Amino acid sequence: MMAYMADQITDIADMPRGGPDASWLDRLLETDRLEYLDRDDIDDEVKRGIVTALDRIGTVFHEHDRNAELVLREVADIADPKILELGAGHGALSRKVLEQHPTAHLTVTDINAESVVAMAASDLGDHPRASVGLMDATAIDAPDGAYDLVVFALSFHHLSPAQAAQVLAEGSRVAGRMLVIDLPRMPSLLHIAKLAVMAPLVWWPFAHDGLISSLRSYSPSALRALGAYAGLDVDVSTNPFDRQVLLARRRA
After folding, report:
1. Cα Dmax for the chain
2. Which of 41, 90, 136, 225 could pair with 55 in a Cys bridge, judged by C-beta atoms 3.0 to 4.6 Å apart?
3. How many Å apart are CA 187 and CA 194, to the nearest integer?
4. Helix (H) or strand (E) holding 189
5. Pick from 183, 129, 172, 181: nearest CA to 150
């Protein structure tokens, strides 16, 4: 099935967010509009407010802890794992992993310079088992096999399909496994209901970006197609009311 999808996608850039087999309705429920976090014309203070809100909500609903559990599960058999986090934003996930694993070494990165400066000025910047830096996830500055695991949490939907396939290829190049944790793509009718609830709140930057994120989220079918296009073996699990998880590995 994965090989079939890879053969059918001659240009990954044209793939719908719902995947190659997306319905006509699902194809209407996507957008090329960028979130405020990805726009150069949005004030940095607005972006900081969104990142802060994401961190607080992740704390209240224990998302950081649950995502850290997924990371730790993947490195449970490695004594001193080297982990690269891409798109770290506020750094909460790496912070939790460092708290819960006494010998893990984290490289904590983001493409946004202000986020990197903020993380470097926090406790992460002084942690003996962490390094913070600027990194483009589509062109990772590291040799093959430099890490045991690459993780990209709650930011994958920011990427276009071409970028997403490149990130999977790069992440699986520098590590044996890449873990992607992201928003689920709901079935179309539930998706419409969700958007209807969110739409009146788009004056709030956090809600604005949440609505755009929902429209840009990938379905399990799309994630499998991206992995196939990148020449990887992928496992995808999803809960339409929670999150979805992709684990990518290089093919033997």
Report:
1. 51
2. 90
3. 10
4. helix 188-198
5. 172
The C-alpha atoms of residue 219 and residue 214 are separated, in whole angstroms, by 11
Rounded CA gap, 188 and 103, in Å? 44
Cα–Cα distance, 239 to 117 (Å, whole number): 34
Residue type for position 241: F
User: What's the gap between Cα 65 and its chain centre?
Assistant: 16
Which pLDDT belongs to residue 3? 38
What is the token pair recorded at 40?
């150069």
Kindly give the residue spans of alpha helices, DSSP state H, lying in 127-249.
Answer: 161-174, 188-198, 205-216, 220-229
DSSP run (H or E) holding 147: strand 147-153
CA separation for the pair 76, 245 (Å, rounded): 17
pLDDT tens digit sequence for 99-116: 999 999 999 999 999 999
If one counts every other C-beta atom within 10 angstroms of the C-beta of residue 125, the result is: 16
Task: Give the burial string for 142-153 (b: 16+ CB within 10 Å, else e).
Answer: beeeebbbbbbb
- Side chain identity at 252, as an amino acid letter? A
Looking at the DSSP bridge assignments, the partners of residue 238 are 244
Q: Are 71 and 179 in contact (CB under 8 A)?
A: yes
Percent of the chain having pLDDT more than 70?
A: 96
Phi and psi at residue 153, in whole multiples of 5°?
-115, 125
Burial of 83 (0-12, 13-18, 19+ CB in 10 A): buried
